[in-house]
Amino acid sequence: MLKNRVAIVTGSTSGIGLGIAQELARLRTDIVLNGFGDPGEIEAIRSGIEREHDVRVVYDGADMSKGDAVRRLIATTIETFGRLDILVNNAGIQFTAPVDEFPPAKWHAILDINLSAAFHGIAAAVPQMKKQRWGRIINIASTHGLVASTHKAAYVAAKHGLIGLTKVVGLETAGSGVTCNAVCPGWVRTPLVEKQISDMATQKRISHQDAAKALLGEKQPSSEFVSPEQLGGTVAFLCSPAADQITGTALAVDGGWTAQ
Ligand code: NAD
Predict the structure, then answer these.
(1) Is the confidence metric ipTM above 0.90 for this complex?
(2) What is the distance between the alpha carbons of residues 110 and 98, in angstroms, rounded to a whole number?
(3) 16: Cβ below 6 Å to ligand 1?
């Protein structure tokens, strides 16, 4: 149970972030939702979680590509709730191209959202968490924080950087009641991956279903997608007393991908 805790989950209007927000709410955590999308759909998600789990859920549309907006999100949360216990840096984007064709604007956008946003959020959150003598920072990295694939220069660089940042913050907060860890999912079937499945289907002239199978077959020995609910469970574990001494690590949830 995480009753009376307050969590920010960035990029939680969809996919993995939504799965994490739902699991934390199930454990009675108040939630700050964040991310883009249709305002009506976001409000339905917000009020749905609030009703189902009897917790307070607010939405903040801060743009994670802007450092000031990330820092404001942290400050506003502390103002609104009087505390901040859990920060899940999850918002992320993907773009694929060979390195020599990779558009510089995409490089910068991926580095800003997938890496620098976590730096700004952590920098703004750590003083409050240290004051409380309890805090959990969880960075949603990727198997691509541990190993590489072709055509993902910016994503792989950002996710490797995120694991480096996790280690530094784990060391700097050690013994303060605050921990910082990275979670490294393999393939999870979310809109971010649907696009890659569609691209593969077009490229190889195969069905969407065969492309999903091929995507898994190439990298993920379990041949099964990781689910957002399972990642919610991983985050909940990292927030539990069993994980009090786990810090600065990168935990793979990848069906065996990085064991190869
Ligand atoms: P998704 O596209 O379903 O969700 C991404 C979320 O981030 C959405 O809520 C979106 O609105 C939000 N977002 C995007 N840009 C933003 C911005 N500038 N400001 C605020 N919010 C923004 O993707 P997902 O698959 O759920 O990915 C979530 C995280 O998990 C990402 O960091 C991704 O790299 C990581 N990840 C995904 C997979 C996978 O297979 N899907 C695997 C490993 C890691």
Answers:
(1) yes
(2) 15
(3) yes
| Residue labelled with tokens 């490294």 | 184
**What tens-digit pLDDT sequence spans the chain (260 residues)?**
788 899 999 999 999 999 999 999 999 999 999 999 999 999 999 999 999 999 999 999 999 999 999 999 999 999 999 999 999 999 999 999 999 999 999 999 999 999 999 999 999 999 999 999 999 999 999 999 999 999 999 999 999 999 999 999 999 999 999 999 999 999 999 998 998 899 999 999 999 999 999 999 999 999 999 999 999 999 999 999 999 999 999 999 999 999 99
Q: Which two tokens stand for residue 28?
A: 């009675």
Q: Separation of 16 CA from ligand 1 center, angstroms?
A: 7
Q: Judge if the beta carbon of residue 63 lies within 6 A of ligand 1.
A: yes
Q: Tell me, in angstroms, the distance from the centre of ligand 1 to residue 143's CA.
A: 14
Catalytic residues: 155
Question: Is 34:60 a contact under the CB 8 Å cutoff?
Answer: yes
Q: d(Cα 27, Cα 207) in Å, to the nearest integer?
A: 39
Q: Is 183 in the pocket of ligand 1 (CB under 6 A)?
A: no
